[in-house]
Amino acid sequence: MLVTLAAKACIRRRFRSYDRERAPLLGGQQEFLPGPRQFSEATAERIDAGVREILDRTFDRSLATLADNRETLDRCAAELLGRETLDEAALKQLTEGLRASEQGPETTAAE
């Protein structure tokens, strides 16, 4: 659990620095968009908040899916340590029981 929280914090910190350095809507420069910006700062902030919410939910769902499939991941890791490589057939056999997170599919407010 501690490793998961540390990884999550690290990724979020990196994403925040990316926001300010490069992303045109996430607080960065508009260098990727041609011409003048056609929306207000308030609209840009709403877009940023919406994107951040989607990314946070998706990240949390990804972590839940990994946790739900921990046994399968450990089995794959053990095989890789023993054999160094896995072909497609071996990987399919090892991952046969994979399941999606119980959180269900992501939805947006527009749906």
Question: Can you describe this structure?
Answer:
The protein is elongated. The chain has one domain (2-29, 39-94). The protein contains four helices and no strands. The protein is an all-alpha fold. The chain starts with a helix and ends in a 17-residue tail after the last helix. Mean pLDDT is 75; it is low at 18-23 and 107-111. It has helices at residues 2-21, 41-68, 70-83, 88-94.
Q: Strands, helices and their partners?
A:
Blueprint: H1 2-21, H2 41-68, H3 70-83, H4 88-94
* Helix share bin: 55-70%
What is the distance, rounded to the nearest whole angstrom, between the alpha carbons of the first and last residues? 33 Å
What global shape is seen? Answer: elongated
Approximate strand percentage: under 5%
Secondary-structure element string: HHHH
- Please identify the structural class as seen in this structure: mainly alpha
The count of β-strands is 0
User: What profile does the largest beta sheet have?
Assistant: none
**What is the overall pLDDT average?**
75
Unreliable parts: 18-23, 107-111
Summed up, the domain count is: 1
Q: What is the overall number of helices?
A: 4
Taking Cα atoms only, what radius of gyration do you get, to the nearest Å?
Answer: 19 Å
